[in-house]
Amino acid sequence: MPKMNSSQLRAQCAQLLLTKAASAARLTAFVGLDGFVDEILHVVDKRESAEVYRRLPTITRLAAQLAAAAGKSTNIELVNQMTKLGGNGPIMANALASFGIQVTYLGLLGYPSLNPVFADFARRAEVHSIGNPGTTDALEFDDGKIMLGKHASLKEVTWENIQARFGREPFAQKFGTADLAGFVNWTMLPYMSQVWEAVLREICPAMQGPRRTIFFDLADPEKRTRADILRALDLIGQFEQYFDVILGLNEKEAHEIGAVLGLPPRDAPDLSLEIAAQLKAGTLVVHPVSCALAVSRGKVDFVQGPFTAKPLITTGAGDHFNSGFCLGRLLGLDNQMSLLTGVTASGYYVRTGQSPSIAQIAAFMQEPVKMQSAAAPPP
Questions:
Q1: Per-residue pLDDT at 370
Q2: How far are the Cα atoms of 80, 102, 119, 242, 322 from residue 246, in angstroms, in the given order?
Q3: Which of 109, 173, 195, 304 has the most CB within a 10 Å radius?
């Protein structure tokens, strides 16, 4: 595999994106079905005054502190850095909207009225809500993040509620005509598989028009049973009859899926090839910490990503990668350039906390940034 993305590849990809940027406004996306309010938090190591503290830098340090408290007790102070829209779906959809794509979002954004944290999102996209969002306390460290979630409201995402609170016909129209459909955060939505079964049974057979793209993200399935995961993978494969299917995984998820499929541990490229060989999905995308690869028809494409040791934010990096990869595919880029678009969108986001435009992706893609044998911060 190459040691770095060539400046020629980055320049070619940037030029293609700029050339095709205007066509993004003619693209449509329909994404769902989760929704969260995220609090981005730092853990205090030492407080020097009422206003000044030192941040606990690593998960390893926190783990040692917690372990030392076993049989005793301890106090952990959290400092809010920002409160923002959250959930794989809203973050991915918001990023797609920043590219200029016409986005419709269906999920948990507040019911019966919109939660204020989604107000800016609602100005950029057409949003519909069928329930209240979950909440996440995202503890961010230099070596990753810990997501502490409250998920009770996610039980409201059912096919019955979708039909009652959004409507069967509006769903069929939006889902059945969008250039990109996206179902994400399967793990946290306990009835998502039933929704997929209903869509496959009741909506897909009646669809007309050209073949389009659908993206799936399981979102850390470790806590789900092997039977549940195998069922989800089978359902994802069934969508290939109607769509060009993309399944996105981060490195941890890839190893979890590999174990469920009975595969021995491998490095990311070999493991991805073996997973892809057992799936019906047309494209498997895997994004480890600092690189990304895609497998289609037995061929692996690989890129590295822009590295920063001090990201401003990591929560949502993977969703920005997913949106960038899907943008590339929708614009007709090959897998390698779509991967490059994905890691660049993610790299821009973790440095700025903002979802980039296509022009900003193209500009950042050509900056002389440090490349590592791995992509932006942990997705």
A1: 54
A2: 35, 20, 29, 12, 10
A3: 109
Residues 6+ apart with CB under 8 A from 129: 35, 106, 107, 108, 109, 110, 111, 114, 165
What are 315-324's pLDDT values in tens digits?
A: 899 999 999 9
**pLDDT for 289:** 73
The Cα 46–Cα 59 span in angstroms is: 16
Q: Please report the pLDDT score of residue 4 as a whole number.
A: 54
Asked whether the whole model's pTM tops 0.85, one would answer yes
Q: In the block, which residue shows the tokens 């049989």?
A: 71
CATH of domain 7-42+84-365: 3.40.1190.20
Residue type, 104: T
Only one residue has tokens 């541990």, namely 265
DSSP strand pairing (283-287 vs 243-250): parallel
Q: Which residues of the chain have pLDDT under 50?
A: 1-3, 371-379
The C-alpha angle 347, 307, 341, rounded to 5 degrees, equals 35
How far is the C-alpha of 7 from the C-alpha of 137, rounded, in Å?
Answer: 39
SS3 107: strand
**Cα–Cα distance, 84 to 86 (Å, whole number):** 6
Largest CA distance in the chain: 64
Question: Domain residues of the chain, as ranges?
Answer: 7-42+84-365
